[in-house]
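Risk register update: the risk of archive-format incompatibility is retired. Evidence:
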Amino acid sequence: MSTTSASQTPSTTPAPATGIPRPAHTVLPDARGFFGKFGGSFIPPELQKQMDEINAAYQRISRSADFIRELRDIRRHFQGRPTPIYYCRRLSDKFGGARIYLKREDLNHSGAHKLNHCMGEALLAKHLGKKKLIAETGAGQHGVALATAGAYFGIPVEIHMGEVDIAKEHPNVVRMRILGATVVPATHGLKTLKEAVDSAFDSYLKDPAGSIYCIGSVVGPHPFPLMVREFQRIVGEEARAQFMEMTGGLPDCVIACVGGGSNSAGIFSGFLDDPVELHGVEPLGRGTALGDHAASISHGSEGIMHGFNSYMLKDAAGQPAPVYSIASGLDYPAVGPEHAYWHDTGRTTTGTATDDEALRAFFQLSRLEGIIPALESAHAVAYATKLAPARPFQTLLVNLSGRGDKDIDFVMEKYPNYAQENE
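Archived output:
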């Protein structure tokens, strides 16, 4: 493990030849995959060999003109990028103070930000000659995105999903199957996202040479936190340019939900070198008791799981603790290592939103702006509405990471009173 503490590692490093500061996203991770003390690769030697091959291929291919040209063509003509920024006039007026804007990743093809890295990972798999794409999914958005990528490239896809989430996110399960993916239920433990990751890793270990594990967030062993962040950085790059064009300046705050942290890493990466507050919003669920939330940074401690070191929620034995969130894409007992690093160095502020706050935001955005957010994204919207009244004359940019089509049946069946309150 790296011996460099997070506080000793600057967010920007001068380029040796010119003294010009390098953009923060180019500095870390180091060659061993560490963001300060977080990250790395804690996996068996036989799997490490495959990770080294993937890393070498990514470093080579991602710099090639053909790869970059094809990925840009996919983003423009298949995904529909760039996604727009939208000013929430009525939502802003309701809460007063700051003006609230959305980066509309819900308008990215397949309905969420996940396709940004799935198309990149599948394109990498194509260049590597892999015969199968394997992944986990919680809310189903990553599963749908990878199934979409598999259909695009003609590569078979196997998606592992907890039984609880299969029932909860039925529309996305149907979409995955329509797109040709095989959905494998994870039937052990709590039958949610962590168990889906366990199941996907087990499947990948059976044939690591012929398949590729397309991790769905900025988690896992190196190089996945790096790769996913870089594929998602397009969100931040677009958002920064669009916001400058729309308003003539930068936002005061950028806000995004954080489970593993792919959508937040993507948008934060565009503003790391700017005087902009970055707020990551964790799911506080039903409260602060262990097992009632999935707020890894706010209530966890340093630990290793799924091949990387980061903040983790642990039980009495030091193992990953049971976690909970109304949002299936956020109920993971750890957080991406770069998020842990940003938190420890003070570059990001970590906030929370409860189930109740997320549900209220879900209906407020729907009724006031005609936009149904994913429950994951609703956590970020909820936090923005809490922050706005105390921030007069400021601007808040929220990453609306996904649309709520997948959640509407679940919400209306389980929480009809929230709909009645907003009628």
